[in-house]
Amino acid sequence: MFSKVDGQQKSSFLEQTKAQREERALEKQKEKSAIKIQCIYRGYKARLTLRKAIRDEIQSLLVKPEVEDGEYVPNFRPALEVYQLIKGFLFTFSERQDKENLELICRYLLYTMDSEDLKVSYVSVSLLKEFVLSWIQQVKEVLWKCVICLKQIKPENHVEVKIMMVYLRMLVTFTHTATWKVIRGKGDALTAGMNQLCNNIMGHLNNKGLYPALQILLVKGLARSKIAFTKTSLTAVLTISLRPLMAANFSDNLLTLFVLNILSVPALIHHISVMAPDCLTILITNRVFKRTLDLLTIEQSTRIIFNTLEGNYALCLLANLIQLGYSELEGLVENTNIFMSVTIRLLDKCKKYVQNKRSNLTHWHPVLGWFSQTTDQGLHEAMPYVVKQLQILWCSKMVRLLFLELIDYVDYAKELDLQKASVKDKGLFKKALDKASAKNSVTKIKLGSNIAQSTCLPCALYQCAINTLSQLRLDIVSGLSYNDILLPILWRFLCDLGPNCGLKVFIDLLQQTPESTIHPIFSLLTLFCDAASNYICTLDHIEMFEHQKIFKVNDYIKMSEFLNLFVFRILWGGLMSITAASNSDVFTAARGLLMILYESDSRRNYAPVGHWLIRDIKASSFINELDKGKKLAQYILQKIPHIIPFSERVKIFRRNVQKEREVLGLCESVNTTPQSTLITVHRSRIVEDGYRQLAQLPSRAIKGTIRVRFINEQGLDEAGIDQDGVFKEFLEETITKVFDPSLNLFKVTSEQKLYPSSTSYIQENHLFLFEFVGKMLAKAVYEGIIVEVPFAPFFLTQILGHSFSSTYSSLDELPSLDPDLAKNLSYIKHFDGEVNDLDLTFCYDEDIMGKLETHELVPGGKAIPVTNENRIRYVHLMAHFRMYRQIREQTLAFIKGFKSVVNPEWLSMFSSPELQKLISGDTTDLDIGDLRKNTQYYGGYHNNHKVINWLWDVLEKDFTQGDRAAFLKFVTSCSKPPLLGFAHLEPPFSIRCVEVSDDQDTGDTVGSVLKGFFNIRKRDPVGRLPTSSTCFNLLKLPNYQKKSTLREKLKYAIHSNTGFELS
Question: Choosing from 106, 316, 993, 1031, which is the catalytic residue?
C-alpha cells in the first residue's frame, strides 16, 4: 500500500514547503511595516498640522517687523490666552525652526511686563491659583531655552548681539520682581512671595547649568583682542550671575560655582572696571573678594575648585582676584595674609602644568612658557589683559601693602638711629637709650618673630610668581626693584638679622637640613638678590657711585662680603651638592648678585684690597684639591674664581696649558720630540705670509711648536738660531701690524683702547683675518708671551662671554667705547621733561666713509618715537647696538679663533681686567730684584761684574717707574712684567757684553768672553749705545768704563724706540 518515496523528491518537497513558509512570513512582515510606516507618517503629519496651527496662532499673536532691524510693536492679547499659546509652542518646539519665534515671544513677554494691565501682563497668570504651578514651569522652560540660545550666540555678530540682549533681558526680568509693574503697590506680602518665586526659578536654572552657560558667553565676548560686549550686555550678564548668589546669601555651593565659572573668565574684572564700573561697585559692596578668600581657605571647597580648574583658568582666576582685591582695598588690608596664601596656592596650581623645555607634549604659553595644556586662540588674545591684572601684584601700592609691617619696622628703626645720632654726649640719657634699644626686640630681628614671618610670606609669594610666570620674570623683578620701596627695607631686614647680614642664621639652617631651602627666609634672600641684581645692572657709574640713591658704597662692600662667604661656605662646607646648588634658586640668585658686584668692582674699584679673597681656605690646599681632580674645587673655581688670588689662578692656567700640551704630545721628552710646524715669512709680508700658512692649521698644530724662517728684503734667508725667539719676534710683529688702526681691522677709543672696526669689511676676507688674529693672540697667551695690546674693557667682556649673561648691562660699559654717547644716553635717561620733544626714534645713524647709514634698533624702529615710557629700553638698546650688534660678526670671528687655542673654561677664571693682564702683563712696577735673580749673562758678564752692578743700581735708584717700564719694553717689547715674575719669562732675560755693532756681532767667542770677564778693553765705548733683541729678551750692553756713561746711554736708547737698528 505504501510505495517507496524517492529521496530526491522528498528533499525537493521540503525545500518548496520551506520557501512558501518564508514567503508567507515576509508578507506578514511587509504588512506590519506598512502599518508602522503609515502610523509614523500619520503621526508626523498630525504633528506638522498641529505645529503649523500653533505657529499660525503664534504668528497672529506676534507681529514680526517688516524690515530686519525694524521696531517690534506687539498686538496685546489676554495674558491667559498667551499662556496657552506658549504652552502649545513649547510642546512642539523645534530648536532649528522655532528660534525666531522664541525671540519674538520673548520680546512680546518683555513688552507685557511693562504694562500695569492685569489682563495683558504675563505675570498676572501666576496670580491665578489653578495656573500658578504650570506658569512657573512654563517660565522655567522659556528661560532655559533662552540660556541654551545664549550658549550658541556669537557676540561679535551685530545681528546676534540684538538677539542676545533679548534673552539677557528675559533672564534679568524674570529673576527679580523689580521690573514687574503689575505688582507694584499690591503690598509687601505679594512682592515677597513673588521674590520667592523668582528664587525658585533661579534655583532651577542653576541646577540645569546657568553658570557654565554664562561662562561660555563671557569667554566668547571677552576672550578676544576686540571686546564684543557693551556696557549694557556685560552689566546684564553680571547681574544674572550675581542674583542667585545674593538670593542664597553667598552660600558655599553657589559661590564655588561663581568662582569656577565667572571669576575664572579671562580679565573679567579688568573689563568690568573699564566698561561697567557700577558692577565693580556691586562686587565691592557685597565683599565678593573677601567671601572668595574665605571660600578658598576651606579645604573641601579649595580641593573642588583646584581639581576642576585647568592651569589656564587658574591663572585667570588669580588675575581677577588680584584686581578685585586691589579694588576692594579694605578687604585686602584685613585679609593680607590669607590673600598671599591663596595666591601662592593658585600659582602652585599653574606651576604643575609648566614645563622646563619644549617637547611634543608642550605648548607655548605667553605668560607661563612651555605648558602641558593647550591654549586656545581666545585665551591667547586675552592674555595682554590678564598680564595687566597680574602686574598689579608688583605695583608700588601693592608692595607697600604686602610689606606694611616691615615698612613700619624700618621707619621705627630709623627713628631710633636718629635719636642715637642726636645724643652726642655720653651721659646717663645716652646710656639709658642704648640699654633700652638693646633690649627692644624691634631693633634686631629674630627668625621666629612676627616681623620675620610677615616679611617672608610676601617674599615667598613673589618668588613663586617669578618661578611660575616665567615669561613675566623680568617684568616682576623690574617692578620690584624700581619702586624705591622694597630693596631698602629688605636690605635693612638682612642687616638686622645678625652680624654679616645674618650669615650664621642661613648657615645654621642649612646645617640642620642640608640642601633644603624650604624655610621662607631663603625666599627673602632670593628675592632680594634677584631684585638687587636687576637694579644694579641698570645703574651707570654716576648713579652707582655718586647718586647712591638706594645703596651706599659701604652697602655694596657689606653685601658682597656676606654673599662671598655665603656662596663659598654653601659649597666648601658641603651644605649643598654641586647638583643641588646648580638647581637652587637661592644659590643662583646669591651668586648672580655677587658676580655683578665683583665685575662692577673690577671696572671701578670700590672694595678694599683683598676683599674678595676667602681667608677660610689656603690657596695651596685648594690647588691640591684641583690637582686631585676634585669636582667641588673645579666647580668653585668655575663659579667664584675670585676667592683665589689672581697669581694662583695664573699658575692654574699655566698648569692647565702644560697638562694639555702633555696630553697632546707637544712636550719634549727623552723618548719623543714633538712635531713642529715650519713657516717661511718674508719681512715685507709678515701678516700675509703668516695668515696664508697658519690660518688653516688645526688647533693642535697652533698649540704646538711653530718655527719661523725669515726672508730679508734681498730675498735671502736670515741667519739666526730659533730657540722660539724668532717665533716670538714673528708673533710680536704680526700682532703689532694687525692691531694697527690704519689696517682698519681695529679701531681705538678715546683712551687708545682697541676694539674691532665695524667697517673692517673693506678688507678682503676680513672675518677670516679676525679669526686668524684671535688665534695668534691666543697663541701668545698660550705660550705665556706678553704682548702690549690694550683692549677696550667691553671687548674683553665679550671675549669672556660675560655679555651674554642676563645680568649684563651694556650701558655700564659704554663709556669704555664712546664716552660722549654714554653721556648723551645718561642725559636722556635722567631727562626731566618729555623725551618725546627730543625727536628721537629707535634707530642709529652711522657715518660710513661719508655715507649716512641708518640702523634700526628694533624692527620698524624708524617709526617708533622715544618716550618717557620706553627711554630705558632705548638707551640699553643703543648701548647694546654700539658695543655688540655693530661689530657682532667681527667679534664672533675673533672669539672663535681665540677659543680654538685657549680653552674657554680656563678663561672663566678671570675678569676683564685680569684677562688684559694675562695678555699684556702686570701693571705693577718692575721688580729689579726679581729680574736680577732670573737674568742670564753672556760675553763675560756675571752677576758681580762692575758694569752689571752699575746697571742694576741705575735701574733701581736713578730711573723713574716710567723709565723702568721703557727699559722693559726695550728689551722684551712689553713694558709690563710677567704675571708670575721673571722666572716665567720665555726666553729668559739675558745680558751679553758686546764690543762691535749689531751687524758685525757673531755671538760669543772665547776672546770676547775673556775680555768681558777680565774687563780688558782697548778704550771706553762711549760712542756706542745699548741694543736689544726682543725676540730673545736679550740686552746687548757695551762694557762701559763709567757708571754715568751707562746711565746716559741706556736712558737715551730706551727712549728712542730703538732696538736692532740703533748702535
Answer: 1031
